[in-house]
Amino acid sequence: MLLRACAARGLWPWFAPDGTLVIGGPDYTKPPVASLIMRLDGKGNNVLSLSDASSIDKSFSELTVLAQSHAHSSTKQSAIIDVGDDADSDIELSTGVAETGQHGMKAVVKDPTVSYYRPQVMVVGDADNQEQINYRARKALSDARLSGYSLTAIVHGHRTSDSVLWEPGQRIHVISEYHSIDAVYFLMGREFNGGRPSGTTTTLRLKEDGVWIPDAYTKKKKQRKGKGETEIVDVA
Known about the structure:
It contains 2 helices and 13 strands, in the order αβββββββββαββββ. With about 240 residues, it is mostly beta strands. It has a 6-stranded mixed beta sheet with strand order 3-11-12-13-10-4. Strands 8-5-9 form a 3-stranded mixed beta sheet, covered by helices on one side. Strands 1-2 form a two-stranded antiparallel sheet.
């Protein structure tokens, strides 16, 4: 129920490393906490290894979501039924009439980064309105894009150069001449490894920045503030 409620509103639930349940999305306005450097001449390098992987298995150029909403609670209406001349009077019956649900709900989203035509159709049920279908379509397409590319880095220690513990949700600037990369990535997960005597290392699992849960924090419309208390003015 939690996953369904969050997905219908463009959000997602997960647990922070300290066990806190978080419902929302990443903040892509935060500055990067560190820079990972891998140059060919070795100057300034602070990464033990850096590897990327890409796949078109779950990537789609166009995603179509089809849905329908279920009928709601029934209402009552009266019906007059004529039972013939033998009856002393007509009989009034109360019949239940279900409010019909909405069908044929559809949302289509496209991924401009996929240059080839590879469509996908997804069917979901029990949608309340068109806005929820739009959320689910964008979330499904972002998940497909996330699975299409990943970047894995192994670094010394468990903290950044500023003594900040590596934690999912951080943004990291990656510079790799070998991979032709100079961009900011989003840290989806980290794994602490090692200890005595070989030392400690951290495996960082990075994804494209700004792709995961794109609808979490949308810009709110500005509301006009009132001028305080109101008063009645006699214009006569």
